[in-house]
């Protein structure tokens, strides 16, 4: 497929880390595909392909990547839970292979955004990478394989993927993917295999491999820690960090890359010595629209343009890796930073377009919402990109398992760590939520092992990212947490009674105590009602499997119920610090969304805004 207009999700998949000087090629589109229900593909060497580099004849179906075969967007819409599936295609090596004279200075990487769950990848029949984890990215260096293909006078290379998913393994992190034959209530069809973008790109051999941005509004600085790859004793490097706002450079700093660690740390001031924007921006604040609309909503505090849902101001950051001796640029990466403290109907887990993610956020902001829990899912990178750009608070969550074992523990820690590493630089991510409602750890009240797992997750996350809050086990049975979150799907009168006192908020929910372990008690954490509502409308007129936590009989009844539920929270004499309504849109059998699966409002958006824009009256909140 050479026409990019016909390629699904054609945009560069990582908008927060762009190399402007190097080409890439998105491999989404039509691939050969096969179900391998008898798991015979390895023995029959499906990875080796057929004659003249063609894919193996066993891969006799076609699928549209990056959509799972269970979805209409894949072109298959086959809902079976097959344990092993295969993909294959060829791609042109033109513009990706390096020139002979600089062969040793550049590499070609093959990237996968996410493949559920265990993956093997072959290029030209050679195994290039194995990966476990269904929700995080991975890549392989395929330079040598492509070079050998070019030396054999080939212009195209083959890539073959085997994905193994155990649909009935309850220790495998799966989120809301159901292990039974048909979805019901809050559980959905499984997602098997490739479900995020696939792409190849050329990169420098000596490069910036990973970086972490940590804003500090108290000191007015941005800390940049970069990990490099490819430097050696004869090639020492320096990291240059340049920060700009509205096209004006604010500051720059150059530090030496450690010879033993291959890491560099730069702490750079981004404070402008004034209480207002720089002259270039200030001139245009009330004049003609010379700059994008963001210029007109800058929030300035003590020389800093702060990021918030109301003012999502982003600083542009350019990282350059240079040689230490003669300052030659080896690699350039463009990203951004924010100074702050603190399912789709036709395509399943995969958003149909990057724009669709933006629409979800814009619609929720338009009715007064300022954030979302991405429940039981590691979200597409473009969701976080749009949340950064538009000003939307996101809780970074995970797909949980359902049963505990030591194998599960190792799997989960590995994958959630990788998701944090992927998303740590997004200012919109404000909370990490590893576990929801004791999924995977059902014996917290009686098992020290299960409690130790929760505590270990908390401290492990803090050791990686001390700047964010953690909800350790959202909604139920807390062990070690920065937030006291609780879930309550009661209707108005019962919810009002619960929110009336601290004792009832902290009391058991769904028969489970607020804290478990004799040493774990409430110590003043912010109170968040992080799941409530879930009101469906006219269930009796929906399909027979439609489900919601509660039911409204009409649009007027739905609005009245929503108004009552929100009032129970915002009029509480306690200081309830926030709430999360269930949910944005209908998904499969769960039809308690504010939007239909096609993202159409069920009721008047202006009336929803009047309800969800309400905030507590400070004068009525108990101290």
Automatic annotation (TrEMBL):
Family: Belongs to the glycosyl hydrolase 2 family.
Gene3D superfamilies: Galactose-binding domain-like, Glycosidases, Immunoglobulins
Domain Glycosyl hydrolases family 2 sugar binding span(s) in chain numbering: 25-150
Residue span, Glycoside hydrolase family 2 catalytic domain: 356-608
GO BP of this protein: carbohydrate metabolic process
UniProt GO molecular function: hydrolase activity, hydrolyzing O-glycosyl compounds
InterPro entries per record: Beta-gal/glucu_dom_sf, Galactose-bd-like_sf, GH, GH2_Domain-Containing, Glyco_hydro_2_cat, Glyco_hydro_2_N, Ig-like_fold, Ig-like_GH2
Phylogenetic lineage: Eukaryota, Fungi, Dikarya, Basidiomycota, Ustilaginomycotina
Domain Glycoside hydrolase family 2 immunoglobulin-like beta-sandwich: residue ranges: 206-340
PANTHER family reported for this sequence: BETA-GALACTOSIDASE, BETA-MANNOSIDASE
Keyword Hydrolase: yes
Any Pfam family matching the protein: Glyco_hydro_2_C
UniProt KW keywords: Glycosidase, Hydrolase
Chain intervals for the UniProt region annotation (Disordered): 1-20
Biased composition (Basic and acidic residues): 11-20
Keyword Hydrolase tagged: yes
Protein's recorded name: Glycoside hydrolase family 2 protein
